[in-house]
Amino acid sequence: MSSLEERFLGLPTTGISDALQGYNHMNTAIKPLKETYKIAGRAFTVSIPAGDNTGILRGIRDAKPGDILVVDGKGYTERAVAGDFVISLAQNMGLQGIIIDGAIRDIQGIRDLDFPVFCRASTISASAKAAPGELQVPISCGGVSVSPGDIIVGDADGVIVVPAGKAEQILQTAIEKMKKDQQRQEKYSGSKEKALQYLHSILGDK
Fold first, then answer.
1. Is the CATH code 3.50.30.40 the one for domain 3-164?
2. Cβ–Cβ < 8 Å for 69, 44
3. Exposure string (b/e) for 62-91, b if CB count within 10 Å is 16 or more?
4. How far apart are CA 172 and CA 169, in angstroms?
5. What confidence tens digit (pLDDT) does each residue in 146-172 have?
């Protein structure tokens, strides 16, 4: 993990969202299987036909350790494109996490692996294996454009995409916003009087 990715790992997705003016977050249905999961790294993109996981297997094989596999599964939730065995392969290959705009299965088995998985849904039915899919191409995942190498950050609140070319700028903006939020917290928290002071200031009360 590079120093840039490590610095993003230390920031909440909410702060990064503020720096991006509320854009570039994936659909709110895409959430981690455990709220404790936190990831930040480079996107290795995969596009698959709905319900087919051959492209995911290829992505797991070709991605570098530390990459985050980002899968455009077309939002299809009737067939799972990964279960505990497939997720274990990703873990063994050194990936940092997987984000799937689609469904998984074997939820308890995946949770037992303690490997970060973010997805839209779960189902029982297994995937098909008929088409190779596409790797390292621009995709749409959860309604957001993702290009290979973009910074992906995920936590309990969801997943956000930081375009690679703007990563340093967005990082600095997010850090500054977090500092201001901390200063506000210190200034106005701790008592009813301070809370009222803030409410009056923000609402323009006289």
1. yes
2. yes
3. ebeeebbbbbbbbbbbebbbbbbebbbebb
4. 5
5. 999 999 999 999 999 999 999 999 999
